[in-house]
Specification:
heterodimer; A: mainly alpha; Helix Hairpins; 3% strand; B: mainly alpha
């Protein structure tokens, strides 16, 4: 049963992590990465989080370095471009929206502690 | 006259203790309760003043004759695990006489689940469970609830699923009810309505609340066979927990009943970014349990991917890459599989919607391979432990059995055609291990559950079927 975030790996796309567009030049990518590394080293409050079309995510210096390394490889970069070009997930998905989770299920039965994290 | 009756009673007790007269536990419990009740009332009347006597009458009556309502309405909601445990031990509820200690642990765990459970309280209940023998259905429910309290949800799910499908002679109805309700809530809280429906409608025993939840689930998922409002209302009213289930029931009533299974229209707009956006929304929790929608969404992405071949070649040329577009597309498809695989691991039933040669089918094969590897490792463990006559403690054995059945059930949900392969893999090691547990360790209930489970999948093996049927009968005689 789904308890993990199925979109977590997708949100770690290097273009999202570095907050650069998919048509950014290699120089722009490097500059964005170095700027973020400097901000993270200084402990800047806003540098640890970023927005993606799939919702917010968090990053650290290691993730920024990995993103830079991935975008230096042309084949990897094209692959990540494909994944980063995603229409924002703002509209409702097709299907039955009423069939979503019953959030109050555990509380309703008085068994809240059994599923509490 | 009184002396004669006394002598008869003494002879009866002596013969019962020596084993020459067998009395069913429920009859014995009833007799003891009656004796204690009469004795206590007599003592109270003789010693206590009038008002105190009336109060004590009520207390004794409730504790001896209606301990379960006392537990369910007062002790458990007041979050008193030790009081719940001792109420069962002292009250000796008639339906739970076979496993009174384990049943006491179950009620203790339920009381604990209503608060933030402390390590000390869980350990105390675990110690009580370890000292309880024999361990049958109530013991398995207790172990499952304690696993849940320790946040080992997978283990809890496995144990409570065993309790839910257990033979009626091994588990009291009230214990099955607790196991089933937990499983239903566990599925409903993440929106896995198809599992709620399977639990409520296809379980071995129909229980009112889980049945009502299954009917609600059918309506929520847009099943064309879902009940209309006029059918759903009586079902809801007949079930318990109406107040807490009402908001969900209202949500279900808002969903119109579809006339037929008509798949949602495929997205009219195409282009990889848009189809990827749609796929991302399907992956999100609210729709992740809709297999058909997931399969269609993956197929659309896969279809749109083919049109990007030329664009990828161009981009690689601009970036000075040496790879080819085919390699990028293969990596993209592998990532697609990696995104879908955990969802199928969590809910193998999604795999039913996979089309042949599709990306989703590749993800299904990945999960299938992992599950078969897991089952194989567990069978090897059983084989080695049978040969070495090595046994774990009873709770650990039930837990190991729950892990194997969980993997096997997932495999069958994933691919119902795998039944024969599964049976060939597990028959010999599990059957031999169950025989060892039955004969060597006198763990009749565990062995019986293993035989019953194997028998359910022995359709294509007449000889094995015959042997298992005989073992099941031997188990029933020993329970």
């Amino acid at each position: 049963m789904t308890t993990h975030d199925p979109l977590a790996a997708w949100r770690s796309n290097p273009f999202f992590v570095l907050e650069v567009p998919t048509d950014a030049t290699p120089t722009e990518v490097e500059r964005a990465g170095q700027r973020l590394l400097a901000l993270l080293a200084l402990g800047s409050a806003g540098a640890g989080t970023y927005e993606t079309p799939l919702g917010p995510a968090t990053r650290d210096a290691d993730r920024v370095r990995q993103a830079l390394a991935a975008l230096r490889d042309p084949q990897q970069r094209v692959l990540h471009e494909l994944w980063a070009n995603v229409a924002p997930a703002d509209g409702p998905a097709s299907g039955h929206s009423n069939a979503g989770p019953w959030e109050e299920a555990g509380h309703a039965l008085g068994w809240s502690a059994l599923w509490a994290r | 006259m009184g002396a004669v009756a006394g002598v008869i009673i003494v002879i009866f007790i002596v013969r019962m203790l020596s084993g020459s007269i067998k009395v069913p536990p429920i009859a014995l419990a009833f007799g003891v309760k009656l004796a204690v009740f009469v004795f206590t009332i007599t003592m109270v009347q003789a010693t206590a003043p009038e008002v105190a006597s009336a109060v004590l009458h009520v207390v004794v009556f409730v504790l001896i004759w209606v301990p379960i309502p006392l537990l369910q309405w007062i002790v458990v909601p007041l979050r008193m695990p030790r009081a719940a445990y001792w109420t069962v031990r002292i009250g000796w509820p008639l339906g739970l006489t076979k496993e009174i200690e384990a049943s006491a642990v179950v009620y203790g765990a339920l009381a604990l689940a209503r608060t933030s459970p402390s390590e000390a309280a869980i350990s105390w209940l675990e110690r009580k469970l370890r000292s309880s023998e024999p361990m049958q259905g109530a013991g398995v429910v207790a172990a499952g609830l304690l696993a849940a309290l320790r946040k080992d949800i997978d283990q809890a799910r496995g144990l409570l699923a065993i309790a839910d499908r257990m033979h009626a002679r091994l588990i009291p109805r009230s214990m099955r009810l607790i196991a089933r309700d937990w499983l239903v809530v566990d599925a409903a809280r993440v929106g896995n309505w198809h599992r709620v429906i399977r639990l409520g409608r296809h379980g071995m025993t129909r229980l009112r609340w889980s049945y009502s939840m299954a009917r609600i689930g059918e309506r929520l998922t847009g099943d064309p066979k879902a009940w209309r409002n006029w059918q759903l209302w009586p079902c809801f009213l007949w079930a318990p927990r109406r107040r807490v289930t009402y908001p969900l029931f209202r949500r279900a009533l808002r969903v119109p009943v579809r006339q037929s299974v008509s798949p949602d229209a495929p997205p009219s707009i195409t282009g990889l970014p848009l189809t990827l956006g749609g796929f991302a929304r399907v992956l999100e929790r609210a729709n992740a349990h809709d297999g058909e929608l997931l399969a269609r969404s993956i197929d659309t992405v896969d279809h749109d991917l083919n049109s990007t071949h030329e664009m990828i070649e161009q981009r690689l040329g601009v970036l000075g890459g040496r790879g080819d577009a085919g390699s990028v597309l293969a990596q993209f498809r592998q990532r697609l599989i990696d995104l879908v695989t955990p969802l199928i691991e969590d809910d193998p039933y999604l795999a039913r919607a996979a089309q042949p040669d599709s990306i989703m089918e590749q993800a299904v094969w990945q999960v299938r391979r992992r599950l078969l590897g897991d089952i194989d490792a567990r069978c090897k463990d059983y084989r080695e432990r049978t040969a070495g006559e090595d046994s774990l403690d009873l709770i650990a054995e039930w837990e190991a059995w729950a892990r194997l059945t969980t993997s096997a059930t997932r495999l069958l949900e994933l691919d119902s055609a795998a039944e024969n392969i599964l049976f060939q893999m597990i028959y010999a090691p599990v059957c031999n291990f169950a025989v060892y547990q039955h004969n060597g360790r006198k763990r009749i209930a565990l062995a019986h559950d293993m035989f019953v489970w194997l028998l359910a999948y022995a359709q294509g093996a007449p000889e094995a079927r015959q042997l298992l049927a005989k073992n099941v009968q031997a188990g029933i005689a020993g329970i």
